Every structure is written in structure tokens, then in C-alpha cells.
Amino acid sequence: MDSSPTASELPPGLEYLIQIDHILIQQDLEFVEAILGFETANKYKIKNKLGQKVYYAVEESSFCTRICCGESRCFSMRILDNLGHEVIILKRPLRCSSCLCPCCLQKIEVQIPPGVPIGYVIQTWHPCAPKFTVQNEKKQAVLKIIGPCITCSCVGNVDFEIKSLDEKIVIGRISKHWSGFLKEILTDVDSFGIQFPMDLDVKMKAVMLGACFLIDFMFFETGGGHRPKL
Predict the structure, then answer these.
(1) Which residues contact 78 (CB under 8 A, 6 or more apart)?
(2) Do residues 50 and 42 touch, judged by C-beta distance below 8 A?
(3) Which of 2, 15, 50, 150 is deepest in the core (most CB within 10 A)?
(4) Which residues fall within 8 angstroms of residue 83, CB to CB, at 6 or more apart?
């Protein structure tokens, strides 16, 4: 882990990440989706641990892509600050969603405007446990993310541990929060928490946001009711 640079050395909008070690992400409830069942573009509020909104995320994808590809769809996610300025861009290509087909696994690219990559999250093949490698802008492996074999959110939180490259040290976690029985069964509205060291490189903190959204779409974006994914 590298020490974070000073605010003046950071890309605009990321300086707030220097002073936090916990992020909450809450998906907005879309009434059209809840009532009619049509998948709409996701929107999320990103808050600090005091519940104050610091960013807002908006999915950009076509109606046909959402209907035909569902949770496996490709998308861009624009993350905006409270003034409406774009600070982070996430790019997810269309990839295979099955661990039985390891040749084309999931990935997400994290960019800062105007499209400069600062990191990547790449799925690592494993027969049962969700595994990801976190890379920096030079595509060098920095961290690992490892989830449980069963990702069904039935009665409690589901934790994906952020680990060192040798997988021996846990430095944080991405947690899918239990939202209550009715919301879990009837909607795909999700809430997450991300914990990481205060001194983690700020760009890697931004990449953890990308990892959280990739995990959401892969394992919990099921259109009402969650189930384990192969």
C-alpha cells in the first residue's frame, strides 16, 4: 500500500477519498422497475459513514442491452460529485458470466475524465469462490478480492474480503448489506459498504468502487430475489 498523495496532486474530485476509510453505497429504488418489472438503468447514492452523500453514480446502458443481457450487460457508470462534476468513469464490457467458461471472465475498468485508466478489476477463474485481481493503471496486480462460495443474501451480510496479493492479510472488505426480507425478495435494490485502510492509495480507493459495482451486477442484480451465481 502506498501513501496517498496530497490533494493538489490528485485528479479533481478524488481528494475527498484521502480522509475516509469507509464508503456506503445505496441503490435508488426505481418505481417503474418495481411495478412493471422492466429493468431500468441503476442509480446509486455514495455516502460516508455519517450518511452524508459525497458522490452519485448513474448507469449508462441501452434498453435493449438491459432486457437482453440482464445482469451480464455491458455498461458505463458515471460517478459525479455533489456539484454534478464527473469524477470517475467505470467501463464494463460484455463478458461471460459463468465460471464454467473461464476464457472470457468479468472485468471492469476504472477511469478518470477524460477517459484515463487508473485501475482494473479482473475476475480470476475459480471453480466455486468468487476471486478478483485488482490492478493499477499499469496493469500490475496490487490486491486480491475473495468472496464466499455461497453469495446468496438470505439473512445477513455477504462479505468479499480485500486481501494482500499472497492472500494472507485482510486489509478491508466489500459487504453486501442485508436489506430486509421484503426488499430482498421483491426488488434488486442493494446496499453495500466498503472498508479499506485510510492510507490506501486514493486511486485504489476509487478502483474499489468499481469492484463493488462489478460484484453487485455479477451476484445481486437479479431483478427481484437473489440467488447464487455459477
Answers:
(1) 57, 58, 60, 86, 88, 89
(2) no
(3) 15
(4) none
Longest pairwise C-alpha distance within the chain: 48
CA distances from 4 to 8, 57, 200 (A): 11, 23, 7
Helix (H) / strand (E) element for 34: namely helix 31-36
Give me the phi and psi of 7, to 5 degrees please.
-60, -35
Name the DSSP letter for residue 6: P
- Residue whose C-alpha is closest to residue 189's, from 222, 147, 155, 151: 222
Query: To which H or E segment does residue 171 belong?
Result: strand 170-177
pLDDT at 5: 58
HSE at residue 44, side-chain half, CA atoms within 13 A, is 27
pLDDT in tens, 87-144: 999 999 987 665 566 667 899 999 998 899 999 999 998 878 899 999 999 999 999 9
pLDDT in the model for residue 229: 41
Contact assessment for residue 150 and residue 141, using Cβ atoms and an 8 Å cutoff: no
Q: What is the pLDDT of residue 63?
A: 86
Helix, strand, coil proportions of the chain in percent (round to 5)?
20, 35, 45
Pair 121, 205: CB distance under 8 Å: no
Give the pLDDT band (50/70/90) at residue 162: very high
| Residue 9 CA neighbour count, 13 Å, CB half | 8
Cell of 135: 490492478
